């Protein structure tokens, strides 16, 4: 039957078959190429009921930003103070806060925010972090908000992060989204080392 079919019909059937198969191939490619650590963050959970502020004390780093040679570091101390150190060696850039205040906000649905006074949002680059008003950046989106889809989070003069737990049990601090249409899963992970002693606070 295929041999007796006119060439035009064969071409048409081939195009129809390709149109049906291509979406499946694209979906498969997306899931194959989507990094596992990003899937982990997307599928993360709110902290357990046993979570306390002391679980955040330590040194945290984010390295998944688009910039090539940058590290965003947070040092959280038990006395409620923190320091942010952002370094981009490729551009010779360094930003360091004084010891500012941090605190935790809890929600009835289990979500937990950590507020960092005076910290900056660096995933979208230095220029936007230094002058967010010029880019219209004062409201961000919480991708984990179950009620409103993408809940609005005001970040004027501070940084707000989602405290999440990966399937492995690791605690991470996940950035909010600058736009509900631009999903991003940058997060701070705990690193080895202890924060400076509280006695060093000026």
Give an overview in words:
- Helix content is 19%, strand content 31%.
- It has two domains: 7-33; 42-200, Lipocalin (Beta Barrel).
- The N and C termini lie far apart (87 Å).
- The chain has an eight-stranded antiparallel barrel. The protein has a two-stranded antiparallel sheet with strand order 7-8.
- The chain is globular, with a radius of gyration of 22 Å.
- By secondary structure, it is an alpha+beta fold.
- The longest helix has 27 residues, at 7-33.
Named at the architecture level, the CATH assignment of the largest domain is: Beta Barrel
Strand-residue proportion: 25-35%
Q: Determine the mean pLDDT.
A: 83
Q: Which class do the helix and strand fractions yield?
A: alpha+beta
**Assembly classification:** single chain
In terms of per-residue confidence, which ranges show pLDDT below 50 for 5 or more consecutive residues? 23-34
**What is the chain-wise order of helices and strands?**
HHEEEEEEHEEEEE
Main β-sheet, spatial strand arrangement: 1-2-3-5-6-9-10-11
Question: Care to count the β-strands?
Answer: 11
Query: What is the terminal-to-terminal distance?
Result: 87 Å
- What helical percentage do the residues reach? 10-25%
Assign an overall shape.
globular
Helices, by number, come to 3
Backbone CA Rg: 22 Å
């Amino acid at each position: 039957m295929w041999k007796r079919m006119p060439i035009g019909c064969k071409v048409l059937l081939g195009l129809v078959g390709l149109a049906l198969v291509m979406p499946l191939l694209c979906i498969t490619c997306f899931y194959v190429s989507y990094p596992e650590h990003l899937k982990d963050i997307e599928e993360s959970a709110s902290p357990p009921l046993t979570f306390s502020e002391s679980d955040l004390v330590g040194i945290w780093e984010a390295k998944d930003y688009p910039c090539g040679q940058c590290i965003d570091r947070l040092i959280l101390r038990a006395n409620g103070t923190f320091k942010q150190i952002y370094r981009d060696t490729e551009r010779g850039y360094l930003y360091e806060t004084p010891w500012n205040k941090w605190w935790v906000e809890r929600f009835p649905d289990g979500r937990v925010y950590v507020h960092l006074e005076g910290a900056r949002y660096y995933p979208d680059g230095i220029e936007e972090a230094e002058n967010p008003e010029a880019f219209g950046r004062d409201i961000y989106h919480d991708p984990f908000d179950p009620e409103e889809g993408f809940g609005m989070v005001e970040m004027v003069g501070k940084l707000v992060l989602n405290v999440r737990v990966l399937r492995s049990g690791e605690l991470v601090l996940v950035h909010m989204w600058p736009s509900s249409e631009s999903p991003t899963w940058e997060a701070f992970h705990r690193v080895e080392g202890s924060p400076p002693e509280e006695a060093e606070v000026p």
